[in-house]
Design goal:
Elements: E1 12-21, E2 25-30, E3 33-39, H1 47-50, E4 56-61, E5 67-81, E6 87-91, E7 95-101, E8 113-118, E9 125-130, H2 142-151, H3 155-159
Length: 160
């Protein structure tokens, strides 16, 4: 069934901070509680090597109330900014990368941590926002993830 025929609107997305990772599920902290959620079927495997505690994930909740991880942002260290406005980052699994800043990104001092992602159109890497302190809710760029899934007709596959 094409996504524009899914009952209701686009699935609700919320962000969660990863606490524990298993191959088929991960535990996330969201809205003051720990929840175990599955990975969307198309999420690359091995997941225990791709998702780590500290990452930020987008969880889609379908009509049945079941949540699945559809995207993740890496927890990266800011190394500095380039003269063109791009941000030089270090991420444990990828080493040093240069990321384009999202509209909501505010410059960070070297050594600060920021959420970075790869795969969204427009740049190889994006830096979304500073890693938020405990007690505050991250915002990241879930609208871009939602648009990506809608544009490429991925909702049906993600929600099974």
């Amino acid at each position: 069934m094409p996504d524009d025929e899914l009952p209701g609107a686009t699935p609700h997305l919320h962000l969660g901070r990863v606490l524990r990772v298993r191959e088929t599920t991960c535990d996330v902290w969201h809205d003051g509680a720990v929840t175990s959620v599955a990975f969307a079927p198309m999420f690359p495997s091995p997941r225990t090597e791709r998702v780590s505690p500290g990452h930020l994930v987008a969880v889609a909740t379908g009509g049945d109330g079941r949540g699945v991880v559809v995207w993740r942002w890496y927890d990266a260290v800011v190394l500095g900014e380039e003269s063109d406005g791009s941000v030089h980052l270090w991420e444990p699994a990828h080493g040093e990368v240069v990321a384009a800043p999202r509209a909501g990104y505010r410059p960070q001092e070297p050594g600060a941590r920021a959420y970075a992602s790869a795969g969204l159109p427009g740049a190889d890497w994006w830096v979304a926002e500073a890693v938020s302190p405990s007690g505050s809710e991250p915002t990241a760029d879930v609208d871009e993830v939602e648009a990506f899934y809608t544009r490429h007709g991925l909702w049906s596959a993600a929600l099974g």
